[in-house]
Specification:
With about 90 residues, the protein is an all-alpha fold. It has one domain. It contains five helices and no strands. Helix 3 packs across helix 4.
């Protein structure tokens, strides 16, 4: 969670999105991400895309896990688009 223990920023949410989708987080962090996704339409749209993509990959017989390099490229892209106001 954020350093102050408050709400997650868009960047923090994006950094943990794959772990959230894979249900690899503590219940507390899952709740914080769910709350952020409920309030942030941009992050929710990204979440929905990733969830649909992983479902498609699983349907096609893939592992459902993105390579580390792809995850890093996506995170860099999200960080570059996140404005300070998006929080």
């Amino acid at each position: 969670m954020s350093a102050g223990g408050g709400r997650l920023s868009c960047t923090e949410c994006a950094e943990q999105l794959y772990a959230y989708l894979d249900r690899e987080l503590t219940a507390e962090v899952e709740r914080a991400i769910a709350a952020h996704l409920n309030d942030c339409t941009d992050c929710f749209g990204h979440f929905e895309f990733e969830r649909a993509f992983l479902a498609f990959v699983a349907w096609r017989g893939g592992s459902g896990t993105a390579p580390d390099e792809l995850r890093e490229r996506i995170l860099r892209s999200v960080r570059g688009r996140a404005s300070p106001e998006a929080g």
